[in-house]
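Extended Data, panel c. Modelled sequence:
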Amino acid sequence: MRIRILGQYVHAPLAGLASIEALAFAGAMVVAMALSSVPLGAMPPIEALWPRALVFAAAMATCLFAFGLYSSRQRALAFGIAVRVVAAILTGGAVTAVVFYLFPSLSLGRAAMGLAVALAALALLFTRSILARLIEDDVFKRRVLVYGCGERAASIASLRRRSDRRGFAVAGYACPEDEPCAVPAQQIFRAAKVLELCAQLGVDEVVVAMDDRRRSFPIRELLECRLSGIDVTDLPTFLERETGRVRIDVLNPAWMIFGEGFRRDPVRLFTSRLLDVVSSLLILILGLPAMLLAALAIKLEDGWRAPLLYRQLRVGCGGSTFEVLKFRSMHIDSEADGQARWAREDDPRITRVGALIRKLRIDELPQVFNVLRGEMSLVGPRPERPEFVAELSERIPYYVERHTVKPGITGWAQLCYRYGSSEQDALEKLQYDLYYIKNHTLLLDLAILMQTVEVVLLGKGAR
């Protein structure tokens, strides 16, 4: 099941796993300090223990999160998980060492630091081997009764990705009168009393997914369920919570108007801008060597007179246009006919240097200047070209709503969906963009930025 923390839905078993591992990391630091003290095994004073244990646990847990090891959408195989674990442990140890160096009062011997990292790795192996198996257990899932058996109810039955079904198990479908069936027949129940059916099946939540609510809507029965402690949820809210996207095929404007989210209060706008400015300056400082090397490589490949930056018109907040800045990764005459084209795999327009800097996402770094100028944000929907926006707005409902916030260098859609190069891809990514626009908070922005580390380091989705 999923729980709501600071406005964000979190997979409860993964939150529990993160909490247990954070305690294990803190314990690893305590044990390492005790084993490296003189006399052997003597416990250092408490004022020396807790700051170091807290910093070490926070650094390790943050790095595991950044490498996608607490993500319900992690689909890597065993080798990929092992690579992420090793990288996260080493990075966490390095981050801890840097913090201890910057604050001499926390300084720790190399032996103790190395022992703490080793013990943390063993603790991680132990907890993952035992507790991670429980995440897929139905014991931790909410049992759901779907009220409806038509096309809308089928949108739940059709969820195929394991990550979309981790939080719940369908106990059955209660079929209203005269509604055509589009769900598995063996899971259909025809009961007069919804509350009785919930008690019989051990249901935690009823999801209302009728095709037509105007006919025989069970207000009294659903009210009985609600007053008996059973949650009652409408279909768009349920799918948003479980899949991390706003499903356009079941969406209606009233849900957007009267539902939670889609807020743009002054505090949120201020924190967003503060995060943009501070993070952009930090990225600019840390990324300067990579930017200089990329600039040199582009000039060496195409000549000193060739343009270094690529300026392209994109659509921003409110439908206004601006010039996005990127390191040029395509040949100068890649669109000599003036026809806008989607980027595709093995695109012949991309140069050799361009292929490398795209893979490493270095071509995106000049966009920090767009962020500092206020044209973009660090986190938000991907900015698209006016030609594509005009075309997609005609064909995809709610597409213009993605321009109610600033476009971003990274975003929820970029994390959850592959690089888009078609109208269908644009539709899929829009559903994730709408989820971000509805739920965007400082916490969600920070989570997206941390998970972008995995995307950049492992080259996921680059094209």
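The first strand starts at residue 2 and ends at 5. This feature is highlighted in the accompanying rendering.
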